[in-house]
Design a protein that fits this description.
The protein is mostly helical and about 150 residues long. About 60% of the residues lie in helices and about 10% in strands. The chain has a 3-stranded antiparallel sheet. Helix 5 (about 90-105) runs antiparallel to helix 6 (about 110-120). The chain is elongated. The protein starts with a helix and ends with a helix.
Protein backbone atom coordinates (compact mmCIF):
# COMPACT_ATOMS: atom_id res chain seq x y z
CA UNK A 1 0.00 0.00 0.00
CA UNK A 2 1.29 3.47 -0.89
CA UNK A 3 2.15 5.92 1.86
CA UNK A 4 -0.44 8.39 0.56
CA UNK A 5 -3.13 5.69 0.97
CA UNK A 6 -1.96 4.99 4.53
CA UNK A 7 -2.07 8.69 5.43
CA UNK A 8 -5.53 9.10 3.86
CA UNK A 9 -6.87 6.03 5.68
CA UNK A 10 -5.50 7.29 8.99
CA UNK A 11 -7.13 10.70 8.53
CA UNK A 12 -10.41 9.06 7.44
CA UNK A 13 -10.34 6.91 10.58
CA UNK A 14 -9.77 10.05 12.67
CA UNK A 15 -12.75 11.72 10.98
CA UNK A 16 -14.94 8.67 11.60
CA UNK A 17 -13.97 8.51 15.27
CA UNK A 18 -14.57 12.23 15.89
CA UNK A 19 -17.88 12.76 14.09
CA UNK A 20 -16.30 14.31 11.02
CA UNK A 21 -13.83 16.71 12.65
CA UNK A 22 -10.12 16.01 12.90
CA UNK A 23 -7.38 18.29 14.10
CA UNK A 24 -3.86 17.15 13.27
CA UNK A 25 -0.39 18.46 13.69
CA UNK A 26 1.43 17.74 10.48
CA UNK A 27 4.87 17.00 11.96
CA UNK A 28 3.47 14.73 14.66
CA UNK A 29 1.41 12.75 12.16
CA UNK A 30 4.39 12.45 9.80
CA UNK A 31 6.59 11.14 12.64
CA UNK A 32 3.93 8.69 13.76
CA UNK A 33 3.37 7.31 10.24
CA UNK A 34 7.04 7.42 9.23
CA UNK A 35 6.78 9.82 6.34
CA UNK A 36 7.80 13.37 5.54
CA UNK A 37 5.47 16.29 6.39
CA UNK A 38 5.09 17.18 2.72
CA UNK A 39 3.40 13.79 2.21
CA UNK A 40 0.73 14.86 4.70
CA UNK A 41 0.25 18.10 2.76
CA UNK A 42 -0.05 16.22 -0.52
CA UNK A 43 -2.73 13.88 0.84
CA UNK A 44 -4.72 16.71 2.37
CA UNK A 45 -4.63 18.89 -0.74
CA UNK A 46 -5.47 16.04 -3.10
CA UNK A 47 -7.96 13.94 -1.13
CA UNK A 48 -9.64 16.29 1.32
CA UNK A 49 -10.92 19.03 -0.97
CA UNK A 50 -14.19 20.99 -0.94
CA UNK A 51 -15.22 19.13 -4.08
CA UNK A 52 -14.90 15.89 -2.15
CA UNK A 53 -16.90 17.21 0.79
CA UNK A 54 -14.25 18.55 3.18
CA UNK A 55 -13.29 21.90 4.65
CA UNK A 56 -9.61 22.28 5.52
CA UNK A 57 -8.35 25.05 7.79
CA UNK A 58 -4.78 25.53 8.88
CA UNK A 59 -3.01 27.59 11.47
CA UNK A 60 0.70 28.09 11.16
CA UNK A 61 3.24 28.54 13.91
CA UNK A 62 4.51 26.58 16.90
CA UNK A 63 1.08 25.38 17.96
CA UNK A 64 -0.14 25.13 14.41
CA UNK A 65 -2.62 22.56 13.26
CA UNK A 66 -4.64 21.43 10.29
CA UNK A 67 -8.36 21.00 10.93
CA UNK A 68 -10.35 18.85 8.53
CA UNK A 69 -14.13 18.87 8.68
CA UNK A 70 -16.37 16.53 6.72
CA UNK A 71 -19.29 18.51 5.33
CA UNK A 72 -22.47 16.81 6.44
CA UNK A 73 -24.88 19.62 5.77
CA UNK A 74 -28.11 19.22 3.94
CA UNK A 75 -28.08 18.91 0.18
CA UNK A 76 -28.71 22.60 -0.51
CA UNK A 77 -25.91 23.78 1.77
CA UNK A 78 -23.51 21.19 0.36
CA UNK A 79 -24.25 22.23 -3.24
CA UNK A 80 -23.80 25.91 -2.40
CA UNK A 81 -20.49 25.06 -0.73
CA UNK A 82 -19.39 23.45 -3.99
CA UNK A 83 -20.61 26.44 -6.03
CA UNK A 84 -18.54 28.74 -3.83
CA UNK A 85 -15.46 26.57 -4.25
CA UNK A 86 -15.50 26.52 -8.06
CA UNK A 87 -13.90 29.90 -8.72
CA UNK A 88 -13.79 31.71 -12.06
CA UNK A 89 -12.47 28.83 -14.16
CA UNK A 90 -12.87 25.07 -14.19
CA UNK A 91 -11.52 22.42 -16.52
CA UNK A 92 -13.68 19.73 -18.02
CA UNK A 93 -11.86 17.08 -15.95
CA UNK A 94 -12.36 18.98 -12.68
CA UNK A 95 -16.03 19.57 -13.43
CA UNK A 96 -16.48 15.87 -14.16
CA UNK A 97 -14.78 14.92 -10.88
CA UNK A 98 -17.02 17.24 -8.90
CA UNK A 99 -20.15 15.91 -10.62
CA UNK A 100 -19.10 12.30 -10.04
CA UNK A 101 -18.50 13.00 -6.35
CA UNK A 102 -21.84 14.76 -6.09
CA UNK A 103 -23.61 11.84 -7.73
CA UNK A 104 -21.73 9.33 -5.58
CA UNK A 105 -22.83 11.11 -2.41
CA UNK A 106 -26.44 11.42 -3.67
CA UNK A 107 -26.37 15.22 -3.89
CA UNK A 108 -27.50 14.94 -7.49
CA UNK A 109 -29.11 12.12 -9.43
CA UNK A 110 -27.32 10.23 -12.18
CA UNK A 111 -29.66 11.91 -14.67
CA UNK A 112 -28.69 15.36 -13.36
CA UNK A 113 -25.00 14.40 -13.49
CA UNK A 114 -25.25 13.29 -17.11
CA UNK A 115 -27.23 16.36 -18.14
CA UNK A 116 -24.85 18.83 -16.47
CA UNK A 117 -21.83 16.89 -17.70
CA UNK A 118 -23.00 17.12 -21.29
CA UNK A 119 -23.49 20.88 -20.94
CA UNK A 120 -19.94 21.25 -19.56
CA UNK A 121 -18.08 18.97 -21.96
CA UNK A 122 -15.35 20.21 -24.27
CA UNK A 123 -17.47 18.98 -27.18
CA UNK A 124 -20.20 21.47 -26.21
CA UNK A 125 -17.63 24.30 -26.36
CA UNK A 126 -15.92 23.35 -29.61
CA UNK A 127 -16.83 26.70 -31.22
CA UNK A 128 -15.60 28.70 -28.19
CA UNK A 129 -11.94 29.81 -28.22
CA UNK A 130 -9.83 27.53 -26.00
CA UNK A 131 -8.78 30.35 -23.65
CA UNK A 132 -12.45 31.10 -22.80
CA UNK A 133 -13.80 27.58 -22.31
CA UNK A 134 -12.89 27.12 -18.63
CA UNK A 135 -14.32 30.54 -17.74
CA UNK A 136 -17.60 29.82 -19.52
CA UNK A 137 -17.73 26.30 -18.07
CA UNK A 138 -17.39 27.64 -14.50
CA UNK A 139 -20.17 30.19 -14.99
CA UNK A 140 -22.53 27.63 -16.51
CA UNK A 141 -21.76 25.00 -13.87
CA UNK A 142 -22.43 27.44 -11.05
CA UNK A 143 -25.71 28.55 -12.61
CA UNK A 144 -26.86 24.97 -13.18
CA UNK A 145 -26.06 23.95 -9.60
CA UNK A 146 -27.76 27.05 -8.17
CA UNK A 147 -30.83 26.24 -10.28
CA UNK A 148 -30.87 22.72 -8.79
CA UNK A 149 -30.87 24.25 -5.31
CA UNK A 150 -33.69 26.64 -6.20
CA UNK A 151 -35.98 24.12 -7.91
CA UNK A 152 -35.48 21.31 -5.38
CA UNK A 153 -36.49 23.08 -2.18
Amino acid sequence: MKMSDIVAQYIMRMLDETDGNAEIQRNELANMLGCVPSQINYVITSRFTPEQGYIVESRRGGGGYIRITRVTADRRVAIMHIVNSIGNRISSASAETILSNMSGSNMISEYERLLISSALSDKAYSSIPQENRDILRAAIMKNMLITLVLINN
